[in-house]
Write a structure and sequence with these properties.
The protein is α+β, with helices and mostly antiparallel strands and about 70 residues long. It folds into two domains: about 1-35, Double Stranded RNA Binding Domain (2-Layer Sandwich); about 35-65, no CATH class. The chain is built from three helices and four strands; from the N terminus they run αββαββα. The protein has helices at about 1-5, 20-35, 50-60; strands spanning about 10, 20, 40, 45-50. The strands form two sheets. A two-stranded antiparallel sheet has the order 1-2. It has a two-stranded antiparallel sheet with strand order 3-4. The longest helix is centred in the middle third of the chain and has 12 residues, at about 20-35. The chain is elongated.
Length: about 70
Amino acid sequence: MVFLSLFKKHRCDMCGKRFRKIEDAMHHQLLFHSNNQSYDCSNCREKFSDMDKLKDHIRKNHSYKK
C-alpha cells in the first residue's frame, strides 16, 4: 500500500486522501469539502454538493433490503 501512495503526490488538506493528479484533488475538495453543499439527505443530516453522491448515500445507508 505504501508503494501505491508514492504515485499519489497530491494530498487533500481536509481529509488527507491522496491523488495522482492535482485536478483530481481539486475536484475532490469541491465535491466533499466545499461549503456549497446544497443536496440534503431527508433521512439524516448529511449534505452533498453532488446529486449522484446523495443518491449513492441513500442507496448505501438508507435502502431497505427485502
